[in-house]
Amino acid sequence: MLAFLVKHSLIGMFVCALLGFAFPVASNTLFPFLPYVLFTLMLLTLVGMPMEQLVKRLCHGALWLYALWHSAVYMLVFSVAGWLLGVSDALLLAILGVAATGSLFATPAIVRALGFDALEAMAMTIATTLLLPLALYIPIHFLPMSQGSLDFVTYGLRLLIFIVGPILISFSLHKLVPKERLQRALLKISPYTILLVFAFPFGLIGSYRNLFDQSVTQALVYLLIAVLLVALFFCGTFLCYRKQGVQEALTAAITSGNRNVLLTYSIAGALLGPAFLPLAGAMQVPTYILPVVTRRLAHYLSKTP
Predict the structure, then answer these.
(1) pLDDT in tens, 171-196
(2) What angle do CA 214, 219, 221 make, to 5 degrees?
(3) DSSP H stretches of helix in 143-215
(4) Sign of CA dihedral 184, 186, 67, 235
(5) Which domain of life does the UniProt lineage start with (predicted)?
(6) CATH topology of domain 1-302
(7) 205 contacts: CB under 8 Å, gap ≥ 6
(8) What H or E segment, with its residue span, contains residue 14?
(9) How many degrees, rounded to 5, is the angle at CA 67 between CA 196 and CA 141?
(10) pLDDT digits (tens, 9 = 90+) for 34-77
(11) Is 115 exposed, middle or buried (0-12, 13-18, 19+ CB in 10 A)?
């Protein structure tokens, strides 16, 4: 059964989003526990990676240029588009909050399932997460819909918990546990890593179901916006990195398309306005169908001369 779930994990993530929509009570019940799943997933992913190489990747200037593209460029584009289209402050704040959001911590597991460079995806995830507080400050400070200030203390603590903590634990395990024993343990644990990802689409989509129950029309508008956002993140980044090769472009694209809206909401909460959480829930559908599309696209591009 486990082997079957791992083999079809990309489709399974999308199915979990549909199940969370169909069972909103269960989805909302799981939502408060997602940070614990997040930490576990981050730790298991990091333990299976060579930490020295990860640190070296983080020292590359090109990685930080990607992080700026991931947030700053898209925030600028959406700000101009929102102003031209007359988008409401609440919705624009939610869109900019999504654009500021770092990559999903589950992205390396998804990238690994696609057969791409999970280490590069992890470095991108950490870099975009480190830029998150600065990126979030801009819409929260300048848009009148938001009241209050960004809680940098809370964000600092979450960085310690979700990034520094797993890195230190991973370093310790690599130093204290013999390499062969650690590798054997990882071979047994690694199949479960992708299964943890199933909790995110299931637990986050409940807020979108609440909006759907209140207004079907508004919910469909949010779903359309979510699809457009994920498509723009993916396609824009793919085209930007296309000259570096298919695998590099797809890795950057799917890392940009996957957004850790849970962490962003945990940091800023109500400061992001009433539209953010329903939009974050709507994004679960296109976000978790994206790996399936990416696999098919990679297969097609590999045959294209």
Answers:
(1) 888 788 887 888 787 777 776 777 78
(2) 140
(3) 152-159, 165-176, 179-196, 199-204, 206-214
(4) positive
(5) Bacteria
(6) Na+/H+ antiporter like fold (1.20.1530)
(7) 17, 20, 21, 27, 281, 282, 284, 285
(8) helix 9-22
(9) 95
(10) 888 878 877 877 777 777 788 889 899 999 999 999 999 999 99
(11) exposed
- Per the structure block, which two tokens stand in for 27? 């989805």
Q: Are 290 and 234 in contact (CB under 8 A)?
A: yes
Q: Which helix (H) or strand (E) holds 281?
A: helix 276-282
Cα–Cα distances in angstroms (integers) from residue 158 to residues 152, 264, 266, in the given order: 10, 11, 9
If you search the block for the tokens 């994004």, which residue do you land on? Answer: 283
* Residue-wise DSSP of 207-273: HHHHHHHH-HHHHHHHHHHHHHHHHHHHHHHHHHHGGG-HHHHHHHHHHHH-B-HHHHHHHHGGGG-
pTM of the model: 0.87
Q: Tell me how far apart the alpha carbons of residues 237 and 80 are, in angstroms, rounded to a whole number.
A: 19
